[in-house]
Batch of 2 targets.
Target 1
Amino acid sequence: MLTHHHAEPIRPKRVVILGAGGFVGGAIKARLSADNIPLLSLTRKELDLLYEGAAPRLAGFLEPTDSVVLVSAIAPAKTVPILVKNVRMVEAVCEALSSREISQLVYISSDAVYADDALPVTESSPVAPRSLHGMMHAARELMLANSTKAPLAILRPTLIYGAADPHNGYGPNRFRRQASKGEPISIFGDGEERRDHVAIEDVAEIARLVLVHRSRGVINVATGTSTSFGDVARMLAHEYGVTVVRQQRSGPSARPLHRFFDIVDCHKSFPSFCYTPLTEGIMKSR
Amino acid sequence: MKSTIGFAGMTHLGQNSAAAAAAHGHLVVCFDPDPDIVRRLEAGERLVTEPGLDELVADHRSSLTYTSRVADLGRCDVVVLSTDVPTNDRGESDLVPIRSLIEQVSRSLAEHALLVILCQVPPGFTRALELPKERLFYQVETLIFGRAVDRAMHPERFIVGCADPAAPLPLPYRTYLESFGCPILPMRYESAELAKISINCFLVASVTVTNTLADLCERVGAAWHEIAPALKLDRRIGPHAYLSPGLGLSGGNLERDLATVMTLAESTGAEVSVIESFQRNSRYRKDWALRTLHRELFSKKLNPHLGVLGLAYKENTHSTKNSPSLALIEHLGDCRLTVYDPVVPATAVNRPGVQAASCMLDVARGVDALVLMTPWPEFRSLAPRGLADVMEGRTIVDPYRLLDPAACGEAGLSHFSLGCPLPRPLEH
């Protein structure tokens, strides 16, 4: 649950985005720019967190009135070396924060920090990652929490979709690309696994809300509605006039893994915010 | 021979217990350290809302003496401590005020007088008091808001904590208890203190299982109100089981006992994960109306007009402690809000711009959605067609199913209640 330092929204003096060149960082940058919020957008070109000297270089950018949004990550972290690199990136951020006062830190984490069987997932669900990617984010959250006295807001988005997503992971993004090329959409088995899919614009909007309220705490970024991959595929197939084909799963058939969120904390933190319904969001991202 | 019974603390519990003692033929001294409370009680002013209490007090007024002089308890054979034990946000008890009252009262007791603690205290509290144990007792209270008079007049049993459960109860106390004509169960202090908590834990278990299955009903198209009667006919569950779905636990007393069990577990290493689940489920169910409103209203209309019927934490009471209605209102987004409660004034709502309706139908006028947050019996008389005529929107959020879902459907209203399948979307 978030607590707001500003009950009424106040524009931050300046927002420093680390990882502004990526899918999520870029969307946050665009959203804040639309509100004319002063920005310092740092991509890997300006600041590579893996380079020696990254910490003092970052510290040199920071002002005490800055709100910092940390999005930089090598994702997904599927191997141990990538996990370690991700941890080293945040080590540099922590080192910079130890010598610089800031106004707020916002970390874009992931719902992978929760156990697969957490149902429904809430902000109070235990952090118990079962993947290297989840462990990477869990470790980074803890490192950051121990490195700054500034209010720390942790956003844990679930599966994000959007036109600019560079990943081609199983789900709305890949389905839409297949359909837009006139190809059949392929799903595993019956595509019965139900997941929560969130529009990139909503992730950016939650980040904006957290910044203008100078919030502290954890918030999941999920719509509260879970849809099966099969239904997403059929919806897009209908829109684009293509077919859905079933792909055999490799290996023994496992129990379908669903993920549901209870987003009542979001309703309480941002009572006037509503998520984009999946159908509308996917159509918008065409 | 009747005893003279003193009650220290003119709380909800104290007022009802004192009136019941008078009704059973005892002379009763009602002490409260607050002279203003005593003055108002003497003047016949209503300080708590409880069906039948005003009449009971009026019928036995000559047996009731109100006083703010603690020395007046000196003429009592038995003094019953009936003060509130306040709790914090986590439901944990603050025992400082009761300790202070015990100290004050015990100094004024007659030499032969007995002291009975009728408040919710944790196991070990009574024995730790530095008072003569042969004159010290703990008695379980089972007050239920809205049914307090009936419970005080006709208790199911008395559970009495004693230093020595094998010893007969002293005559004045036994006389007082026997006048109610129900079983008396003496046991050691700790057992009685934990008996109170055990009763509440069993109630919470029923409530939690009901709420859990009602949630499932809403998701799979089953109707809990069709299932519950079948369960009540099962002897292992019973006709009086708590099988009505609700908005989590509220009122404070059940939460207090769960918090006490958690605290005891922390210091003793007992495995109490089920209690933690009760607490989690309660927190989850409290937000049922907020979830429903976001799904059915806020996600569909900007700045809607919302009507809320009921502010009290439950029917037949003025109490708003842990009120689901006030908790809901606290988290509402931008909207116009009109409220009505038969007893609680609109000023209890801490939100600017709230409109107070003059009657229950008035609250529905022009609203996009109507929420019935307290199950006041009079709300059942609202006619769905009449509501449909004055409402702008079609959404009725009625957790306790006070209105007839079929009649709502016929009136073109979408009716949402706990444990019921979601209504079919209206055709436009």
Note: The first strand of chain A starts at residue 3 and ends at 4.
Target 2
Amino acid sequence: MKKLSWILLTATLAAQAQVPAPVTTQTLTNAQQDPNSWLSYGKNYYGWRYSPLTQITAANVAQLAPAWILPTGVPGNNETTPLVYGDMMYLTGPSNNAWAVDLLTGKKVWSYSDYVPSGLGLCCGTVNRGFAMLGDRLFKVNIQSTLVSLEAKSGKVLWETTIDDYKKGYSNTAAPLIIKDMVVVGTAGAEWGIRGYIDAYDAATGKRRWRFYTVPTAGEAGIETWGGNSYKTGGGSTWITGTYDPELNLIYWGIGNPGPDMDGSVRKGDNLYTCAIVAIDADTGKLKWYFQMTPHDVHDWDAVADPVLVEAMVKGVKVKAVAQANRNGFYYLLDRTTGKFITAKAYTKVNWADGIGADGRPILIAGREPTPEGNMTCPGLGGGHNWSATAYSPKTGLYYFGATDGCQMFNVEKMEYVEGNQYQAGDAVAVPKEPTSGSVNAVDPSTGTLKWKHTLMSNPSGLLATAGGLVFTGDSDGYMMALDGLTGKVLWHYQTGAAIRSPAISYTFHGKQYIAMVSGQNLLAFKLP
Amino acid sequence: MAFPQWLKPVLALLAIAPGSCFAQALTNPFAGNAQAVADGSKIFAQSCAPCHGRDGTGGQGQAEGMRPPDLTRGVFKAGRQDSDLFRVVSQGVRGTEMPSFAALGNDQIWRVLTFVRSLSTVAPVLAGDPAAGETLFWGKGNCGSCHQVGTKGTRLGPDLTRGGRRSNVKSLRESIVDPNADITPGFAIITVETREHQKISGLERWLDNFSARLIDQSGNERTYLRDDVISIDREMRSTMPDNYGKMFSATDVDNLVAYIQKIRREANSQ
């Protein structure tokens, strides 16, 4: 009988072995050692978006073909990074939708949907950039500034927390970041005169643990960088997911533009901590250091792009560093322990600064501020590199990012702040007869030296780097493509039929490497024959 | 069709519910009201300009990867009736970045729509004679060899059936005497160099990262793959001759402008 019990127990365990173990902090910390899964927005805590899988290579990528296509049925820009764990993919979509997908067939296992209220202040649609996962739970933000926890196996809502009041211009689009037992989220809304922050919530209950305001208030350090009461509508949104160094226990997060965007005359000073990267203690939410790329920004040059954690060689010494292709047209490398500036280099046409000084501040060229008539400035409002996912390959040693190359006419106008109303005070339009182009760029992260640039018609979607020596991306005409990571040469492309706004991911299923990406309202998974 | 007495209040409500399948054609209570245009422009600056641009032509939304339509053309995908525009603003457009602005309330929505309508309202050209312009357009000017108006003409250049992309006098004059100043998207010149070193230029139908399609000087359309040719380049130059400012007198230009505005005015009234 004892033997029979043992056999039964073993059989039960064998059956359960199909179900992956709950995701732990350790699982996330070691995510790079798990080539089969994709467990967080940036693949690993460092934000590398680098798959160690090697089945798909420069030699065979030309044979890559769709394994299955899932029409989600939800239109709109889809900017998500899907997660993969076990035999499931977890995918968010626009307008508060999400799905679990069976990796064998590409069919939906469950769907989640929530109502999108009227009265939202949105610059760029009801987009969402993905789930986070911990234990057997998923976490996502909803556009009306809520955070929701779902049971991974069923999609059942476990709790939902209100982050802020959407009627005041707050909204949420970024994938959360799991740190220990917390769910860390950022907010959008700097064009609506919000006061930005980074929040941490208890993963079990949804109760808020800490909040770091990206704009100081009276009596706090940094308030001297805001003229008068301008800090009250100072913006500083945090709409792209940050990264994390478990050894230093520091969270790195990029901060968006000050408000109002184009009229700097009503907010004299550097306007900390807008257009900066901040390092925050993960346990307390307290500021450890900051580095501001664009003091007193008037061009909407958010510093929200992925702060990618790399080991750089600086004067022959290895340095724990953080790299970012900033929207202002310069690539930056900082010491991530101290926040000290290491180097910066322009990666696109820049006409507002004559380089970056030894102190890390831009050497400004006078007369580049927006004017009522319009003033041409390069890069344009979207950058440079905007928000789309970047990648780092430890194999090639290169940091990859997409960019828009060109200029725009920046206008400014006077605007009174009214709670809940747009508070931008200007905009940017195309320069007549000067079309912009796009590019995929590869730089040496230690020096910022451009290794290659592949020019495209417009800026590409986010990137994925693989140990097969490839970089995957997509474009607004619906082409998915693979570039040689060492040369930038396009080795494969596939017309998916709809604009691509999201980055690709890679995983294995039944021993095969897959590349998955969202195009329009369809999710596509590719593999070799 | 007769409805029961008890259903009539319900139907009355449905009839005014925007977007309802029972909805009647709503009309703008502020149509043409100058104060509503002024009020609407302020609402537009707050709520619409972030995507559509301050002038309504598209603006920064394009820089954010969106496709905000040009609202100054008087041509709307959602339809031309006031009720169509009201539905778009109050409910948003599913599958696009256009959200619902129901929170503005009906009064504010109508005011902003009054402003949007004003963007494509044709101001009279006192100096121009539309009849003379029409004669010139189809006669000596030979404009119909490239432009189409309804069933007449050729569609090598922008279709003018609804009066073209711009409605104001300054832009229309500019498009005649200086066509390179503001090229209508999709009407640049594409030049393909084949592997046999033959250069083929033509009007752009499309150009993307892997292919191009053009209309050559004989009117033939062809698609080229970048992999199959040496180069494909786009030149931001209009195929429209740039010497009409010398060929035509100032009166001729005014007459052409008046004719194109008349086309728009008639199209808007349909």
Note: Chain A has a mean pLDDT of 94.
